[in-house]
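Memo to structure team: turn this sequence into structure tokens by end of day. - J.P.
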Amino acid sequence: MASTTATNNPTTAPAFDVMEGTIWMNGELKAWADTKIHILTHGLHYGSCVFEGNRAYNGKIFKLHEHSERLLRSAEILGFTIPHTADEIDNICNEVLAVNKLVDAYVRPVAWRGSEMVGVSAQNNSINLAVAVWEWPSYFDPEERRRGIRLDMAEYRRPSPQTAPCHAKAAGLYMICTISKHAAEDKGYADAMMLDWRGHIAEATGANVFFVKDDVLHTPTPDCFLDGITRRTVIGLAAKRGVKTIERTIMPDEMADFSACFITGTAAEVTPVSQIGDYHFTPDNISLTLMADYADLVKS
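Reply from structure team:
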């Protein structure tokens, strides 16, 4: 299979629209270049689009069914129904992985409202589903990841549940993440830490965050952002090591009291953090152990 490989480095990665491979779209396996949508698709203009990010290791997609179920829940939160069950989406993802002859890959199911109506109302629009896969190495620079990545503090904040469907993995919710990540990268950081609308620590632009203090993990309560599948996995791994996790409100100035920090996500996996704004951390035994435990788990 030709180049279904992408990285975060635009100087070395091909543009996604010119990559080669096979994508499943609305019941058909199509050549990569033939999976097109109309410019007036509702998902483009009004953000009526949900997606998942899965990783495959050694030919097996990690916690695939949990991701498929979350995709369906996200669509329901946005008011539309994907015309497939979680089991069917699992089968589609596995089929696309196999057809593209990939064993270590990123898997992207995406569902969106079509172009039958263009306007805020889209009651009669078709619901579309596609699944693409590609090779995707480390989300962050491997050498920087070993040292611990550096995060800026984002200007934008995660919204209140009363103002946005914050528990859906919805495309529109990520625009402030893109803005914040770009601003951080422009200043030499790898990512940005976002507060919530109340001024509490929330998450990075695409990953949950954990802090370490006195051999105990502290992580924000996910009441206005995703309770990540990787986040829950790491809490379970920590428990197996006898490490307690406290979910609670965390204020920004508390970062001065934490000795270590790491972020978690399907793309980020478990990544140590060395700096957030003016606060500095040192990757410790707990962070590095959980990083290794997670790598062993997903590859087992």
